[in-house]
Structures
1.
Amino acid sequence: MGCLCPQFFNPEPMVKEKEDHEAKQYSWDKRDRLNPEVYLVDGAVSRTICRLPTSINGQQFIIQNCKSCKIFVFDHMASVTIDDCSDCCIFLGPIKGSIFIRDCSDCRVMVACQQFRTRDCRNMEIFLCCSTQPIIESSSGMKFSCFQYSYSQLEDQFQKSGLSVFNNNWSDIHDFTPVPDERNYSFLPQDTLLDCFIPPSTEDIHVEGLSVDRTKSIIPHTLGKQSRQHDESCLIIFFSQGKTSSNEVRSFMKKMSEDHADCDLVQSKEVHLQPSEAENIIGTNDYKSFVTQGPVVGLEYNGENCCKICHTVTKSQHNKRIFISQDATAAKKEIENFYNVANLQLAI
């Protein structure tokens, strides 16, 4: 009777897989190894520390236990935590997510982020660009102002972080732990000096186009929740023209600041509008074809005769994709309707 399993009786040994075969490679094995020290500043005292563009490249960053330091991070990041620091001046490039500052005192921080929060902090000066509502908790002596900074790579870093330079709610502070008859935060004077945010010029620290000049800032300097000087405001909406839209907006703001400095830019918003929303805001469907071509940028200006002034300034631009309030009465309703849509979309 024949054997059905002759291999069991094969005198030759079975061929085994080579034990010394090459180890299987996975995609995560091929990634560049990160140096943790690059993404952490810990225990520094009386030092100047700088991270140059492309050094962080969208990773998380941590600052902790520092005293009397100047810290500059000229790059975009995923998120940032700052813990137990005192008497420090800190500049941070765009943050895609959140920054959380805890147990810090007597520090100055310039930062642009999606979300901002502090806890157990005191006597802080914050120069802020925040896409959502900033939050303070168990903090006192908090002073806020609008982010004002520029360097050559900053706009590209904003884009990589998914942040719009026109969405800034720096002054819309929510205090989780208010104190009766007291206020834990206030606003800084617009002429506050920013010298500490300029690093010393050395061979190791060189950032092209660096400036704290408000007129050069990539973020429009806005009045925010501070008191308006006049009863009249005006809404200007720039409908999408592709990449040229932001240039048109900046050209308009530059003209206003140079020739009509008595008119204050209160807020700016960049949002997507549906045709029905645009019609509800401005009362006409004349801009229907423009709405579907991309986001719009809305500006609120405040000042005497600002509606008339804004009309005069835009005439030189010869742009049919710009809406401007006709008068102060119409502007009040248009501004309210625009903010209702924008704040809902931005979840403010």
Note: The first helix runs from residue 154 to 161.
2.
Amino acid sequence: ANFFIEFEILKRKSQRESTQTQYGNDIKRIVFIYRNKIENMTEKSPEKFNYELKKIEFFGRKVPVILQNENGPCPLIAIGNVLLLKGKMQLSLDYSVISNEQLLDLVSECLTNSNESMKNNEEMAADYRKNLSDAISLLPKLQYGMDINVKFKGCQEIEYTPECVIFDLLGIDLVHGWTVDPTDRSSFAVLGNLSYNQMMEKLVASSVASDESNHKPVSTFVKTSPSSRSPRSPKKIPLDVEKEIKIEKLEIKEEKLEEKQEKLIEIEEKKEEKEDQQSKIIIEASVIDQFMAASPSQLTYNGLYQLHEHLQENSLSVFFRANHFATIIKYKGDLYVLITDAGFRNETVVWEKLDDVSGDGDFYMADFTEQPTSVLPPMLASAIAEVG
């Protein structure tokens, strides 16, 4: 099967029209350099493995989709499935598996064929070549995962990282559903402008502030004992000189007293400011704790609402949730996630409906009709029966 996939890739390459422009030569050079890098990385990697393929019906055509052997992030599988379902990447229905090297090769080919309109724009072509170079060099990393720092304001709000250029070039939306409801003013005031990483930093700061507020500083003032030696008998000073000395000493004491009072006021103000700041941090942390406790599945009802509003009918995107990447589609106003667990390789269920924050949606067949409980696998059927 691997030989036939490689043959199909080479055949499609030979059929493409080669361009003699400088742009075309640059693209060929980029692809050649980074394809060798991909091969070297995968040859050195001890984790060579194959992904199983499952044939499904998708809007009147048979499409192979990539299954995941083990639970994990693997955004590469989600990207590959979006490209297969969109028809931008083709695989023969005769294949039952695809290796990670071959999948990387096919996705990199889609990258080189993306954004055709930029090829004729000299100003945009230079940026595109740079982005393409970056995307192909970063592509192998996606088979091991991708760092995602979601922002709680919206389902599209994700901190831009170098790997995001891959999604941009392929025209694939990367979305999530872990958002805060703007009608919840207290939560939105704290989380509305935060990312996940910033939220965690606030929780750490709260822990430190809590420890400091509970810590009572020990006084370091030490009372010195008077000298044991007998004081010397003072010399007699003329009265007028003695009076001047007393006045000078009094003035010095007053100045020092004023300085000391100013310093004490300044210290007290800083202390109050710090206490107010610590109190604010602790209160914000409490709001964050409540938000996290209410959304353990990293999906909120506001997130579902935003996904419904943002995603277009029949559109395919990559959905990030709980360190996992999945293919999501909006069909007839409902959201469905593609089932890629290898345990479902021989089952007729293809989609899981995303309509509840718990994450336990109903299973649906390829044509988006609900799977009858009677024909579900025995294990699933009994589990559903127990739930009621």
Note: The beta strands are 50-58, 61-66, 97-99, 174-176, 316-321, 324-331, 334-338, 351-353, 363-364.
3.
Amino acid sequence: MTEQRKLTKFDGNLLWYLAGNEDCKTYSKQMLNETLSWICRERKINYVEIRLEEIVVSVENDRLQLIVNSKQVEYLPLVVVIRIPPRLSVDSHITVIHHLELLGCRLINSSAAIMRCVNKMWTLQELANRGLPLPNTFSYGCRSNPLNVLDSVEDQLGYPLVVKNVKGCQGRQVFLARDSCMLHETLPVLKHETPYLFQQYIRESHGKDVRVIVVGGKVIGAMLRQSADGRMQSNCAAGGSGTAFNLSPEGEKLALEVAQCLGLDYCGIDLLLSGHNFYVCEVNANAGFERFNSALGVNVAECISEFALAELARLRSEVNCSQLFFVDDSESIIENGKEQ
């Protein structure tokens, strides 16, 4: 345990929900907030919703400090549920999240796990290091000579092939290059600051994939996503449909291995179909679940909330008693915050 954590005071009866303004109107963000709120109220847990933009982090007198809405935080929560915006800022958002971790808070998900999913190529690197099944994929480290990338891609992948922005989301900035002419038309975008990747085209999975949601080391369910207009993208956010999918034991095992490899407490895993086999396409640490809930008749927000409260109960027994306080409700309210 670090010296900093030894000095931290925790409120053993407090849970935070940390989200970004960019995500404030989505179904998943609101559903998770409402579910955490009523479960905490039922179990007499103090609950506060905080936005990333309301936090100031500092280093003062050789110690980490935290300010929320211009008020110094004295008692920290043992558990913080994170709902990051789709377009995460590594410099600002991760700075805040990492600060909370160094203070000793248990984050769902951790900053390291989130970072592994910020860039699609970073995700694939981690999974390949574990030997998990993936489509053959190429990317690059220098934008100055992209022709070298295209030559390797053409030789190794052939056509058609998939081109993706490594930070794209909801099916955007993804297209199918059917021939050399279409691939070379990507040269201008390869010079942008955010790199692209080039991926093997799995013909059997054109316009469809399987979204698996994992919470706390358990598969909540699987949904088959299908394009509505024959396009390659199957994302529900791009107009695709979603129906319940009977995931095989092999598929379930793969999804759990992916979540464990990346260190994710909660995630959406997209699997491509090829006969009876699966390939891991992408992993989302901020997966939405509106269509998933309706297709499967489940409540993902409740699953996340129950896992968070189980972690809170576990940590209460592990934290040094000299650091653990049970603060009166009136003392723990954060000024201008959203105490529920």
Note: The mean pLDDT is 86.
